């Protein structure tokens, strides 16, 4: 691996300096002065200089640059060097006889200047030495541009070099490619970090080899994400196989599967990062597939991308214009003889003026990913609190409402305070406001989340674990979790349709867990009477699902409240 420091030493230990001057006498004088301590190269004009500089990137320690030259002058050379991420790290000293040019040169990025005629060799040598030293120190301090583990470029530099490649080969058709490992975190967990690192190293070495041959660049973004910028190829199957081949040497360990996303024949008018986002987008699409390992960015994905952009664009306005509508779906208690309205879940809908009704399944994950979810959620939380108040005022009955909380919401410093304010503004008891937090959140950010949940609960709110059973919470972890209600993941109820002994067993087990934790269980996604009876038999406490009602607008929901009131009056 080429460390940033290595570049500064020429083969025989002497540093390499390039002298650029159109007058032979100047080249000779400087060459004579320098030759004892340095290896010296010469150029007669700017054009020649740049060629030599490019050839010696990595080993050239300094350029002495004349300003006035035919073909290409010194200022033009400085301009080019400044634009180039590789070249801009090579320091240069300007050779000038004009006082006025000094300031301009220093502004243009010159490290120092040497005045002509060259009548003070000691001063000149001292300046040269000082400049080289400073630059080497500086380059050492700077974060290296390569990733320590794999020797590939790191994020920042990768993009720069990819752009550089375009600059040098504007006519070349290129592909943006992302490569990562399926469930890399599992490999780390199963076999340890050291093994994980060795896998990454191995992959890095392969990628370096391939990319070097093909004339591309490669970088490691984070963890197991590699990006490659390549001259276009029609088929990546072989390449992916090559990457994977050596990784299966250790038969005692699980097979390592890699995944590749390709954005072929990139549109060079799009930003470089964006091109790779497209490759990753394609790859995301096969995240859970056990059969495909290469995915291409195509028209379908382009459409999806366009829709996403549109939705992000329209978000601000949608909030202002109240295009978001909160629907409510009832949850019924089924432990008694007749089902009783227990609470409602607030579920957002987007009534888009041009696109029509948009399901949260489309925009929620998008806004979560882009860090925009908080605005939407706060809108719903506020709306829901006001609704509970309105119903309370109108019917004298408090129908508790549960709202959904996204994983990222909990990082807001005023997370708990915001809920407390809502309660105060609407004169509500926190007991009438539940927070649904999806199970996977518990496994990802356990510590932070647990703190928040404790704070919420001590403020009096009830916390419901959503989608329980879809994640990987261990029994061990569950027993210490501060939660008030468990909500079974819908897939269990869906599977029940097959009416298989095994599926019912699993449900039974889930409900047993809830009992063991002393918390009530809600089943959602209940569509048939049969499911409902089965769940009742198993000891489920509450039901939410189409069997009772779909999520409906607030006004429609009022019929359930009226029914409940009638029921109360009858008893
Ligand atoms: P979720 O929290 O698991 O919500 C349950 C989903 O199941 C809802 O879908 C609901 O309409 C649907 N559902 C209810 N009963 C049945 C049934 O009997 N059969 C079937 N097939 N489906 C049923 P929806 O409203 O499309 O919401 C999807 C997801 O979007 C929600 O899943 C939730 O994760 C998210 N979401 C909805 N509103 C919000 C919100 O305001 N904030 C956040 N962060 N997420 C929200
Ligand atoms: Ca929910
Ligand atoms: Ca759910």
Give the arrangement of secondary structure elements.
Layout (H helix, E strand, L loop, with lengths): L14 E6 L3 H11 L3 E6 L2 H10 L4 E7 L7 H10 L8 E5 L2 H9 L4 E4 L5 H21 L13 H14 L5 E8 L2 H8 L1 H22 L2 E4 L5 E6 L5 H9 L12 E6 L8 H13 L9 E3 L2 H22 L3 E10 L6 E13 L3 E3 L1 H10 L3 H23 L5 E5 L9 H11 L7 E6 H6 L1 H13 L3 E7 L6 H4 L6 E4 L1 H7 L4 H17 L3 E4 L4 H10 L3 E3 L7 E2 H17 L1
Parallel strand pairs: 1-2, 1-3, 3-4, 4-5, 9-10, 12-14, 14-15, 15-16, 16-17, 17-18, 18-19
Antiparallel strand pairs: 6-8, 6-9, 7-8, 11-12, 11-19, 11-20, 12-13
Helix pairs in contact: 2-3, 7-8, 8-9, 18-19
Bound molecules: ligand C2E and calcium ion (CA) (2 copies).
CATH superfamily assignment of the largest domain? EAL domain
Average of pLDDT: 89
Small molecules bound in the structure, each named once: ligand C2E, calcium ion
> How far apart are the first and last residues' alpha carbons, in Å?
81 Å
Secondary structure tally: strands:
20
Number of domains: 3
Which strand-content bin applies to the residues? 15-25%
Radius of gyration: 33 Å
| CATH fold-level topology of the largest domain | TIM Barrel
Shape: elongated
The CATH class of the largest domain is identified as Alpha Beta
- What structural class is derived from the secondary structure elements? alpha/beta
Poorly predicted runs: 1-11
- Residues in helix, %: 40-55%
């Amino acid at each position: 691996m080429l460390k940033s420091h290595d570049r500064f030493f020429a083969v025989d230990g002497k540093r390499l300096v390039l002298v650029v001057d159109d007058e032979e006498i100047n080249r000779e004088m400087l060459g004579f002065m320098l030759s004892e301590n340095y290896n010296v190269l010469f150029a007669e004009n700017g054009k020649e200089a740049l060629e030599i500089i490019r050839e010696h990137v990595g080993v050239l320690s300094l350029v002495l640059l004349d300003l006035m030259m035919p073909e290409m002058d010194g200022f033009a050379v400085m301009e080019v060097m400044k634009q180039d991420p590789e070249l801009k790290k090579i320091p240069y000293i300007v050779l000038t006889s004009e006082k006025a040019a000094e300031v301009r040169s220093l502004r243009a990025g010159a490290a120092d200047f040497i005045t002509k005629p060259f009548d003070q060799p000691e001063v000149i040598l001292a300046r040269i030495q000082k400049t080289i030293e400073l630059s080497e120190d500086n380059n050492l301090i700077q974060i290296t541009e390569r990733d320590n583990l794999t020797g590939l470029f790191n994020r920042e530099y990768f993009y720069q070099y990819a752009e550089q490649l375009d600059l040098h080969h504007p006519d070349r058709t290129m592909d943006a490619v992302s490569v990562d490992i399926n469930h890399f975190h599992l490999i780390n967990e199963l076999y340890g970090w050291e093994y994980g690192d060795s896998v990454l190293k191995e992959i890095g070495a392969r990628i370096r080899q391939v990319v070097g041959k093909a004339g591309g660049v490669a970088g490691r973004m984070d963890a197991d994400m590699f990006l490659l910028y390549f001259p276009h190829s029609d088929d990546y199957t072989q390449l992916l196989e090559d990457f994977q081949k050596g990784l299966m040497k250790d038969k005692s360990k699980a097979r390592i599967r890699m995944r590749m996303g390709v954005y072929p024949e990139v549109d060079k008018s799009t930003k470089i990062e964006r091109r790779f986002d497209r490759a990753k987008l394609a790859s995301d699409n096969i995240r859970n597939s056990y059969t495909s390992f290469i995915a291409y960015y195509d028209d379908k994905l382009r459409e999806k991308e366009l829709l996403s952009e549109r939705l992000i664009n329209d978000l601000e306005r949608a909030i202002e214009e109240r295009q978001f509508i909160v629907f409510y779906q009832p949850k019924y208690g089924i432990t008694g003889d007749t089902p009783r309205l227990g609470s409602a879940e607030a579920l957002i809908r987007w009534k888009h003026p041009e696109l029509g009704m948009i399901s949260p399944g489309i925009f929620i994950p998008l806004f979560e990913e882009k860090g925009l979810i908080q605005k939407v959620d706060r809108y719903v939380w506020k709306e829901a609190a006001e609704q509970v108040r309105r119903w309370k005022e109108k019917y004298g009955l408090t129908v508790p409402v549960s709202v959904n909380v996204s994983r990222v919401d909990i990082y807001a410093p005023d997370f708990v305070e915001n809920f407390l304010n809502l309660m105060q503004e609407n004169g509500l008891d926190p007991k009438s406001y539940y927070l649904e937090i999806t199970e996977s959140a518990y496994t990802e950010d356990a510590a932070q989340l647990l703190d928040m949940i404790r704070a919420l609960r001590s403020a009096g709110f009830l916390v419901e674990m959503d989608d329980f059973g879809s994640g990987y919470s261990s029994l061990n972890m569950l027993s210490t979790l501060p939660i008030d209600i468990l909500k079974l993941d819908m897939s269990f109820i869906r599977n029940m349709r097959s009416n298989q002994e095994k599926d019912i067993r699993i449900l039974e087990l889930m409900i047993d867990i809830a009992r063991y934790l002393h918390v009530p269980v809600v089943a959602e996604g209940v569509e048939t009477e049969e499911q409902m009876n089965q769940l009742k038999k198993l000891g489920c406490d509450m039901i939410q699902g189409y069997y009772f009602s779909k999520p409906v607008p607030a006004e429609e929901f009022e019929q359930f409240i009226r029914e409940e009131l009638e029921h109360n009056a009858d008893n």
